[in-house]
Structures are given as C-alpha cells and as structure tokens.
Amino acid sequence: MADRPGHFHGGLTLPAHKRQSTGSPLRTAAIPEVLIHPLSQHVGAPAEAIVEPGEKVLRGQPVARATGYVGSPVHAGSSGTVVEIAPRPVPHPSGLSADCVVIRTDGEDRPFEGYDPLTNYRTLNAPALRARVRECGIVGLGGAAFPTSVKLNVGVGLRSLILNAAECEPFISCDDTLLRHRSEEVVLGAQVMLHALEIRHCLIGIEDDKPEAREALTAAVARIGDDRIEVLTVPAHYPSGGERQLIQLLTGHEVPAQGIPADIGYLCHNVGTAAAVARAVLRGEPLISRIVTVTGSGVSSPTNLEVRLGTPMANLIDECGGYTANARYLIMGGAMMGFPLERDDLPVIKATNCLLAASEEDIRPREETLACIRCGDCASVCPANLLPQQLQWYTRANDFEQVEALNLYDCIECGCCDLVCPSHIPLTQYFRYAKTEIWSRKREREQSDHARERFEARKSRLEEQARARQRRLAAKTRALGKAGKDEAARKAMIDEVMQRVRAKKKTDEDQDKGE
Amino acid sequence: MRSFGRTMPPHLRPANSVTRVMGEVLLALVPATVAYVWYFGPGILFNIAVAVGVAVAAEASMLAARGKPVATHLSDLSAIVTAVLLAFALPPLTPWWLTATGTVFAIVFAKQLYGGLGYNPFNPAMAGYVVLLISFPAEMTRWLPPSGFDLALEQPDLLETLRYGLTGQFPQNLSWDAVGGATPLDQVKTQLGLARTVDEIRSGPLYGDFGAKGWEWINNYIAIGGLWLIYRKVIRWQIPVAMLAGVILPATLFYLLEPGSYPPPSFHLFSGATMLGAFFIATDPVSAATSDRGRLIYGAGIGVLTYVIRTWGGYPDGVAFAVLLMNMAVPAIDRYTVPRAYGHGR
Amino acid sequence: MITAIIAVTSLAAVFGLLLGYAAVRFRTEGDPVVEKIDALLPQTQCGQCGFPGCRPYAEAIVAGEADINRCPPGGEATILQLADLLDRDPKPLDPERGVEKPKRVAVIAEDLCIGCTLCIQACPVDAILGASKQMHTVIESECTGCELCIEPCPVDCIDMIEPPPSLATWRWPRPETDSRNGRSLAGTG
C-alpha cells in the first residue's frame, strides 16, 4: 500500500459519526407497495416515459428512455402495474415536484430478461460497453448523478482511472458498507472500466478510518489477482472525497479550473458506480437499487440498507425502527452538504446516498450572526484556496463581478468555512445564492440581448416595408405623371388597371363558390 | 407522511465563536498584567477598570443609538479587549479622565461610527492611544520607574495611586519629581540626541540584562501569552513573526554598522510595546490584512516603521503610529495578495 | 515680462495642438455610453419609462432628459447597475412609472381569439405567431412581458401570467435576513 504523494490546502478533521450505522450488517429493505421513479434523476435532460398507465412492467424493465447525449434511462424497481405518469414531490432543495412514473408493485418481483450478461466483455469494444452502461441507466452514485457512459467517453490521453472510496462526509457510510460486503463487485467493475477506457492503471483512494473496508478491498484485489489496480490510503480529512481534492491527494496534480480531470489524464468514479457497472455488464442488471445509509439520532436503529430505487423514504425509516422522539429534520446527504427534505414520502433516487434524521442537538442552531471580524480562518480551511471572507463581503454588496473575479465558481460548497467562522456567518449559503444569482442574471442578459435583436430586426423590416411602399407609390405617380399629359394614354392605363381588378374579383368569387 | 423544517448545510455545530476568541486574548494578557503590577504598581489595574467600564458604557449607548441588540454585541467581548489593550499602553499613573477620553474615542469614533465590530479600518485601541498622545503629551510621557531595583525613587501605593487616578493630585509627600521618570526608550532617544553612546546609556541603572529593567520581563510575559495564543490558533504566526523580523533586521543592520549610535536588536525587542504590538495589537483581525502573504507584508511593514519612528522619528515608541499607517495600507495589500486558487495557473 | 508672455503663449499653443490632434485621432462615432446603457436595459420595449423603446430611453438618460429610475421591468437591479455605470447615486423606482413585478408572460385564450392580428402588429419582438383569420398564439420563450398586446385586443383575450416555478429555473434564496436589524440567520434560508 503506497503513501499518498500529495496533500490539499485546508480542510478539517471532523467527527465521523459513522460507527452508529456501520455497527449492524447490511440488510435488504422490503419492496414497498408503491415505487415512484422521477424522470430526472441525473444531470442532463429528463428521460421520456415509454410506458402507459395500466401497463404491466417487470423488474428492471426500462420505463423511460434517455433523451439527448447527456441523459439516462429509468428502470422499474420491481414488477407491477404503472399507475400514472404525473408530477410528484421529488427530493430537491426547492421542494418542487417533477414528473414521475408511479408503479404499484405486485409483490412477485419478476425480472426483465432484456439484458444479456456480457461475461465475454473483453471481446467487446469501448462503444459497445458504453452502450450497455448507458442502457442500464448507470449514473454517478457518489451524489453527482452524471451519466457514466458519457464520462467513460473521454477520448485519448488518459493515464489512470481513480475510484473514490474516500467517503469523507460525516454520517455517510454506504461506500464503507459496500466495500465490506461486495468488494469483489467493485474490483470487477474497475476491470470493466479499464477495458472500456483502454488503459492499464487504476487507483482506489480510501480513507484511513475504514480499516475493515480497506482489508476487504485489498483482499478482493489480491483474490482476483489484478496488478493494474492499486489501493492507496488517504488521511481522514474532510473533504478528501471531493474529486479535485482526491486527485490532488493521490497524484499531486491539480485539475485546471473550469476544466475536468481528464484534462490532466485522470477519470474519477465512485466505487458504488463501479459496482453498478459490474452488475450491468456481467449480470445484465440495470440500476434499480443502491445502498443507502439511514442514520442520525432521529432514527432508532441506524444502519445501511440495500434499497430499491423509488422506495418512499418513510419506509426506510420504518425499517430502522422508526423515528425517535428527537427527530426534527430529515436531510438527504451528509452532515456537511446534505439538503433538507420537507416530507418523508419522497422517493429514493439514484443520488440518495444517505438519509440523516437529525435532532436539534445534531444540528447547527439557528442563531443571529455577527459581522465578519476578518479573522481569515475561513481562508485557511478552504480546500480550493479561495477567500470566503472577500466572497461574502462582495456578495452582500451585490458586486457580482468581483465575486466572479475571486473565483466563486471554484467553490465546491464543502462547508468548511462555515464551521470555523467565529461570527457564525452562513458563508456557503451566500455562495450558493451568488452562483444561481449570477447564472440567472446572465440568462436575463442573454434574453434581453435576444429581445433587442428581434426588436431591431422587426424595426428594420417595417422600415423596409414602408420604404418599399413609398417606392411603389413614387413609381406609380411618375408613371401616371408621364401619361397625364396624354389623355388617351392615361385612360388606357386606367382601363388596364380596372380590367385587372375585375379579373381578380372574378377568380376570388370562383374560388369562394368552389369551396 | 411527516413534515420537517428546513435547515441549510453545513449542519455540524461550529466550535469557534467571537466570544471565545476575545476571551482567550484576555486570558493571555493575565501573566503580563501580573508582571506589570509587580514592577509598576497597581496603577494599571485602575486604568483597566476605568477603561473597561467606560468602553462597555460607550459601546452599549452606541449600539442602542444604532438600534442594534445590545446584549448580543456586548457579549462578544471585543470592547473589553480594546479597553484592556489601551490601558496597557497608558502610563501606570493616569488620571481617570485621560483613560476615559481615550476609550471613548476608541470605541465611539474608531469603531462604532464605522459600523461596529468588523467594519473599522483602524485599530481602535491604537487610534485612542494616538489621540491621547498628541492631545496630552505631558501626561502621556510621565511614567514610573520599575520597583524592586535600587533606584532611589518611591513608588506610590494603592491608595496613593487611586487618589491620583481619581483626583489628579498627589498626597503631600509625593510629587512627579519624586516618583516619575521617562521610559527607557524615551531616555535612550534623548541621550542619543545628547551624543552619548549606547554603551554609556546602557550602563545606567535603568537598564537590565537585555532590555530595560522591568520592561524586559513584561515583554517576556506578553510574548509567552502571545505564543500561547498561536498554539490555541486564536492568532496566526504570520503577523508576530513578520513584525519582529521587521524590527530585528534593520536594528541588527544598523547596530552592526555603528554600535555606538544604535541600540542592539535585543533592546528593541524587549522594550516598549514591541511584544504587545506583535502579538496583541497588530494581530487585531479586523484591521489587519486578509491572506497569509498579505499578513507577512503587513507585519513586516509595522516592524520596519516602528524601528524607523523609534530611531529617526519624533516619538520614543513607534508601534502605535506604525500600526495605524499599515492599517491604511491594508486594502492595497489585500488587492495584491489574493492567494492562488486551486486549479489556476502555477 | 516678455519671457512670461512668450512662455505662456507657447504652452497654450502646444497644448492646443495636442488637444486638436487627440480630438481627431481618438474621435468616437456616436456616444458609446448610450450603447452601454442600452445593454443594461431589459429590452422589453414597453414604453413604461415614457419613451418609445429602450434605446430612446438610453439616449434620453445621456441627454439628461430622464433619470435612471424610470424602468419598472428592469427594477432595482437595473437602477443599481445604471448608477454604477454612470457614477450616480441610485434612487428608488419612480412610482409614477410603474411597480417592479416578477417576470410575466402573455397568454392568449384561444377560444376567444378572433384572428384580428392587432396584437401581432403591436408586439415589438414578433413574439406572437398567427395570421389574419388564423389562430394567434404567444411564443412563450420570446415574450418579454411588455404588455403592449393587451390594449389592442378587441376581445380582451390576452392575460399576463407568471410562469410556474420549475426545477430548471429555481434559485437559492439569499440567506435570510432578520428584518429587525438586517442580520443574517445562520442555519435558515
């Protein structure tokens, strides 16, 4: 096991809060009565439903197809009947609804046999493997939900595949659990990806506070016997699991700003994604389930569950003994970046890695903030080496030009700055607000530029029409003028015009009669 | 279906608070206060009491006038820290009205009228001190010599101190001639002006092993308190190290060039307000530079300016002016020391 | 005395030549400030400012005939940007010109439309599709919410509606400020 060659600026060592959920073994959650599949669970255009209400579907059958290159299909979590395709509340910070395919399960869980296991995948080429990954609906399971097939289409110049087993955020332990129980799937998935990417090196980065998972992983690598795959330990320092920070830790290189890791020859995937790729290619199983950590002092028996996508979250809480008396908030994600959910009947989606039922004690209190005292602690913990202090001053002053100039878009919203601020300023929220505000102003600017173009075009069109009319009028006046001296010529011209008008009238009448 | 409230990430509880930061600064000043009382008598305690009382009253009235919640803002202890630092800068025997004036100026003009904590561009304690120094030069230069050394001078006791502080009058048997004297820095400056050499001056009774008697130990305890603050991560090392370097380097240079006319660097380090400035005054986060590199420049500037003012300027100690001058330079320093963000060109 | 006169006169001549040269060499066509102001205006061409379009309003601002606070669709954000550009103090929106409303789009009630094309002729950005005696419809993506189509319609079949919020257009709110003292509340938003 090699030592990591790099380190990243800042970060915090946080209390892990993971033992509560890793103490008990992985269980499979029961299949619920109703499964709700949002059509948009991924980055890119929402999928388009391909089933009708009343149609019977099987487990793993595609119910929505991908639209556009960056997109992903959606599959049924179990066999049953499609109830409706309608807007339902979905897990999103806005609390809004989106179109979902709702299935009433029949309890039989009959499988769809449409995807053959490709145990001979080594004879297939990269596009064929990517097509299988895409048709099985695989997206990044680390939380970003980016379509994996698109990410695997990276072209030439790749040096290594990096698998992210860091899982640095407090409370989340789903990757830890996956590695303890199914490291082999992860390693097989890595092999499939290596073949699809046509490279020969894979680095798996794991934090040093997961000894059981690390042992299981190294044992799996040894058992399968692939020396292209290396397991490296990184210190348990938040946010070592951020893609850019992990790459810096494992390789010492920085991903260029506004760029992607492929620009420096690396591609990063979550270990859960790798396991899903293994299932899709080797067993022909589309992405219909994932491991979810259900934890926090608001739930009686925290644990990790293997859950069918589309399961209402309330079912998961019930499987873990129900809410405790302290439960006050429900958060999807971890303690640093998870967003609040206002209701518990929302479905589990591909990006749901953790459900945190939190009590008041777990949570930062709502309190008055003081003014920034310019202590600079926020800058010393920022993993992107930004100046949160200045970003906050300029955001509050609505000076968004300066905010962008200070590299706001390099902020990964990890939340480290918030935690150390002595004045308790909600810094990360200011940055989220600033980002969407800048985007919407840019969009408005584009729209108003577009409106101006249309207005100018219309104005010149009308002016051109007016000018054309003027010209015609002037020409006619001149023509009349020339003929005006000659009484007979003038009369001839008028007769000609009257004849034309009569003829036109007649054809109009014929047409009307004909209709 | 159960409903929940909204709470935005990050969700963990922050460990730090302004009250904790300010509280630890006050704790770090305790050893120095004890040493001060040991050498110069109880005068400083009276000054601290007056300053703190006036500061809290002034801040409370300004907050109320501005419509802000008084209890929340007073409990951040920043007014008390300003008051204590100002009291440290004043001579031990100071009439109460002098301390009060300086404190009121510091809190009202140099802090609250700019918008309160976080908005002041100048260090409030130093602004208050400088106003006093310029307005009341006589009172501000009447120091006491340290006790415990054989200096043939008497030191007022507690009652006499209180009486002076409250009424400005000494009892019959005491007077400034009997108790007062200049600070070592002041003396060095005047004597150098009289063309005595450094060695001659330093062999005088007021000078100790490496700094000035009494002063050197107070500076030591301040430094110890400062180092503890760095260990506790309340302040960062850049400003103290840079400021001390800014004092040591020119002092060494000139001392090596002409040992007769320039005091050695150790003298500069351990007299006057050098250590207080390095660890407590220049490190005031609100008026200091933002980034680490900026802080190095800021601290070095203060150190160099302190040395320059001490050696060639009109005042015996330059820390206060140096701090205020560098406060003015902070926006420019910040603009040019933005750190390189992740992923941007190397 | 003579030297003084010669010195001042020659200085004046030199500077006069320099200024003349600069006036010719660095001449600009039109007033670029008008372009910059027009770039900040929302281009609804609605006329609520009292001028027949956004560009005439921009020209009036430069000519000193109009103040910067007359544009309701632009709202406070535009006033602040104009104030910044022109180095003036921002002012609140002139209430005689209208109030700042959230962006709305026009919708034609199809069962009432008589196909008269009066709204098509009124729309400054050609956002209404249709022809004489054919159904008219508003192209939502092009509609700027200027409301110029509402008056001409003889059957009053056009309504302004706020587009419903969607996941694509949702924005994070500004961290909540306590109205009592403008302080932010950590943990809410």
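Chain B touches chain A through 48 residues (CB under 8 Å).
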